[in-house]
Amino acid sequence: MHQGVIIVNPHVKPDHGDYIVLKNAEDEAVFKQLKKYGKARILHPLNPNYPDIELSDKHQYRVIGKVVEKKKRY
Prior knowledge:
By secondary structure, the chain is mostly beta strands. The chain has one domain: Umud Fragment, subunit A (Ribbon). Helix content is 0%, strand content 54%. It has strands at 3-9, 19-23, 29-37, 40-44, 53-54, 62-73.
């Protein structure tokens, strides 16, 4: 079984293509890729079975931090 560890820095501003950890309205942590298209900000899931989410008043998230390193454990 593979396990992974991610290192998140709350002080680094995420940009297009970065992976980020956020908290949703239910106070759950989520892991998404941030994509920017003009003024639109999209949360792109790693699992292709889930749709993209456009950040808006309807979908509010609080950014915890940018993923700055990942490690695999075997």
